[in-house]
Amino acid sequence: MAQKRLMQELRALQKEKWVDITTDETNLLKWKIGLWVVNPDSVWHGAFLKAEMRFPADYPYQPPAFKFLTPNIVHPNVYLDGNLCISILHRPGEDEQSGELASERWNVLHGVESVLRSVLLLMDDPEINSAANVDASVLYRDNRVEYDRLARVIVEETQKSTPEGAHMPTMAELAPVPIKPVDDDADFWNMTDEEEDFGGSDSDENMEDDFDDDFEDEDDK
User: Fold this and answer.
1) Which of 85, 88, 119, 122 does the annotation list as catalytic?
2) What is the model's pTM?
3) In 3-state terms, what secondary structure has residue 29?
4) Can you spell out the DSSP letters for 102-168?
5) What angle do CA 110, 119, 155 make, to 5 degrees?
6) TM spans, by residue (predicted)?
7) What domains are there in the chain, each with its CATH number?
8) How many whole angstroms separate alpha carbon 221 and alpha carbon 217?
9) Are 33 and 18 in contact (CB under 8 A)?
């Protein structure tokens, strides 16, 4: 079940320009991820963030694990060892202790793409009240200028270690492929007069004559 689902997701993600995925041929439950931060408004814009994902044997019923391999990421929700704290990767169901709702946590409708997009969103909008890195959380809250400077340093470092031939995707490359509109049925607009009566019968015409006669009778009274 897990491997079949992962193969389907892998094929879809290999068409995306903002993510680079390599898999272990002997172990499909372990992926190496490269994430381009393509949001031009992000302090992390231009970064190529390396990570790994590990999937349990009962995926997608249980969530994968996500860990950054890019070192020294300064972010409130990234532990010093690179592990990420994010609700979507927490086990299914509500958690009374943390207050997380089931809708915020993992469920079988999620997949790798939804996780990766959630990671990118979290990079720009961290949860500072449930910090994995307290120092980064305080810095983000109290000294955003310094926080942004450190982020830009990391961005520059990641750009030095991108895979050979890889490049930051342009906005044109990220634009969805336009769907060709379906042509209208030309025959519909070229119907003959006979076709336009939509199946009217002689009895309909007789009924109209009867109505006309009734109106004439009324006028004679």
Assistant:
1) 85
2) 0.76
3) strand
4) GGGS--TT--HHHHHHHHHHHHHS--GGG-SSHHHHHHHHH-HHHHHHHHHHHHHHHHTTPPTT--P
5) 155
6) none
7) 2-174 (3.10.110.10), 186-220 (no CATH)
8) 7
9) no
Cα distance from N-terminal residue to C-terminal residue, the chain: 84
Please report, as a single letter, which amino acid is at residue 138.
Answer: V
Tokens of 57: 């044997």
Peptide bond into 169 cis (omega under 30): no
Amino acid type, 192: T
The one-letter amino acid code at 212 reads D
**What pLDDT was estimated at residue 129?**
86
Are 127 and 137 in contact, with CB atoms under 8 Å apart? no
Kindly list the distances between the CA atom of residue 144 and the CA atoms of 16, 43, 53, 185, 201, in Å, as whole numbers in the listed order. 32, 11, 30, 59, 79
Is 85 a catalytic site residue?
Answer: yes
